[in-house]
Amino acid sequence: MHYLAEGLRLPTNALDYTILILYFVVVLGVGFAARASVRTSLDFFLSGRSLPAWVTGLAFVAANLGALEILGMAANGAQYGVYTVHWYWVGAIPAMVFLGLVMMPFYYGSKVRSVPEFLLHRYGPSSHLLSSIIFSVASVLIAGVNLYAMAIVVEALLGWPQWVAIVVAGLFVLAYITLGGLSSAIYNEVLQFFVILAALIPLTVVGLRRIGGFGGLKDSLTASHGPNFVSAWGGTGIGSDNPLGANWLTIVLGLGFCLSFGYWTTNFAEVQRALSAKNLSAAQRTPLIAAFPKMFIPLIVVVPGLIALVMEPDIGTEKSGLQYNDAIPLLMSELLPNGVLGLAVTGLLAAFMAGMAANVSSFNTVFTNDIWRAYVMKGRPDGYYLLTGRVVTAIGVLAGMGTAFIASSFSNIMNYLQTLFSFFNVPLFCVFIIGMFWKRATAAAGFWGLLCGTVAAMINYFWLYLGDVIAIPSDQGANFVSAIVAFVAGGVVMVAVTPFTRPRPVESLAGLVYGTTAPGVAEPPAPGDEAWYRRPAVLGWSALILAALCYIPFSL
Predict the structure, then answer these.
(1) Which terminus of the chain is more exposed, N or C, with fewer CB under 10 A?
(2) How far apart are CA 314 and CA 186, in angstroms?
(3) Where in the cell is it found (predicted)?
(4) Closest among 380, 25, 67, 420 to 188, alpha carbons compared
């Protein structure tokens, strides 16, 4: 197992620990407050579909702002440079807009409780069960990433043994989700979002002052790594070499379409937040509201990774003893005074807990409703499934503790996570998008497309890439290619199988396929939703235009 360097130990004092303890007290307080609203399984799993758009929107972005974002994207910044901004403006915003404008009416209008349940309505039980199992496995693996990252950070920064950090954070996540269900997770994610910002903004500002601002940052990295390292699109021509090991085609298709749309439109850890909104308009606005803070996250996540590379030029090499994952802890140990240090540690723990809570809360929903209720114990009273959800929450936390050690073999956890997404999310998106726009797609085509897409991605990564059968310059480049392979393989299999299998009657696809409408989907706007700034189309186009403008200063 890789550990953070011991030299990163922080000089924490009583003030720092007081801030940390206060945060944990507030987190549990939110769980107890939310407990009063949990009376049914719908309350536990989807907050009774009662939350306003601004709450679900902030929770949507906070659920993603875990280890994946903080350590992973900072590590990507230190390893790959400014190319990392593609994960935001190509690899997130368009997919979030597509989810809000195109897919949420299908999800919310069909009243499903999970993403796999939509496949049950569209394709039938085979695809439903397969996608439920795949998602459950992926959720536990990703929850383990957050626990592993948190444990090594806390051990290095505070001196806590890894098992103590894992048990403490795991028990707190278990406590507030078991008490208050999704409502507790979402309101804590809103709190965690602001705590994370309060931790990362000072880190970025102080770091930039230390190295001479953005001008000093660009000059230093240009001198050490060349001009392409500080340009979003420099050196991405087909056949050109760059640190990312990808060209513009694999960036746009592999990351911008397959991985991005696969993650943001089918990952239930995100979609669950939108499904808990109070009406269809609020559900549509959830990912659109989240898109605006999301596009500015690179300034407080990617930029610190670049700053760490300037301050420690040998990071990620054996000469330094530091991994790319050490970028954020390195800055914390070098730049922050006590008090602010406690806030930064609290922000990191908040990020890890938000990421883990998002995956655990989605895991308990899918396992309880889509596996246990649908295939194992049918027709039980609602209270039985509410209790099952709480038990499964504990199982998910314990399983996440076990899978935390799988992530330890990756020095850049973003590489590991993108590998998981190419295996699990991309084939699911392929099946979704084809079934959503092609009425003829059959149940057998959905099942075999999902299975073959997943297997094809694994073959590309484990055999062709790791076996050196084909030459791909980097792990991330391999992930982009795996995503394209998964989507193409799944799509080809679906198109090949469909003509030889029987389709469902068109009337049974109402509200499940584009161009059809289920009763109640086209609901009138709620009072106050007529305002222009609450219209999903306006928010969506504004987000796309702003994301395109963000590229300009990073491409010059």
Answers:
(1) C
(2) 39
(3) Membrane
(4) 25
Q: Are 285 and 536 in contact (CB under 8 A)?
A: yes
For residue range 281-339, what is the model confidence (pLDDT) as tens digits?
889 999 999 999 999 999 999 999 999 999 988 887 777 777 787 888 888 878 877 77
The whole-angstrom distance between residue 455's C-alpha and the CA centroid of its chain comes to: 22
Vertex 152 angle, CA 74 and 70, to 5°? 25
Distance CA 13, CA 311 (A): 25
Q: Which amino acid is at 70?
A: I
Residue 534 near residue 87, CB atoms below 8 Å: no
- Plot region of 64 (φ>0 → left; ψ -120 to 50 → alpha; else → beta): alpha
Which amino acid type is present at position 38? V
- Separation of alpha carbons 346 and 58, rounded Å: 19
Cα separation, 341 vs 345, in Å, equals: 6
Name the residue among 514, 443, 480, 110 with its Cα closest to residue 262: 480
Whole-angstrom distance between the N-terminal and C-terminal Cα of the chain? 40
Using alpha carbons, list the distances in angstroms from residue 167 to 164, 350, 515. 5, 15, 49
φ/ψ bin of 515: left (φ > 0), alpha (ψ from -120 to 50), beta (otherwise): left
C-alpha 350/C-alpha 77 separation (Å) is: 21
> Chain centroid to CA 68: how far?
7
Q: Which residue has the higher pLDDT, 96 or 361?
A: 96
CA distance 487 to 476: 17
Q: Check if the beta carbon of residue 439 is closer than 8 Å to that of residue 498.
A: no
| pTM, full prediction | 0.83
Rounded Cα–Cα distance for residues 101 and 443 (Å): 26
DSSP 316: T
Selection from 546, 471, 479 nearest residue 251 by Cα: 479
Q: What residue spans of 159-279 are helical by DSSP H?
A: 162-211, 213-225, 248-250, 260-266, 268-275
CA–CA gap between residue 176 and residue 183 (Å, rounded): 10
**Position 300: which residue type?**
I
Any idea what the Cα angle at residue 190 is, between residues 189 and 191, rounded to 5°?
90
Q: Which tokens belong to 232?
A: 């979003």
Q: Are 304 and 556 in contact (CB under 8 A)?
A: no
Residues facing residue 277 across a β-bridge: 51
Domain annotation for the chain: domains and CATH numbers: 6-414+532-555 (1.20.1730.10), 423-504 (no CATH)
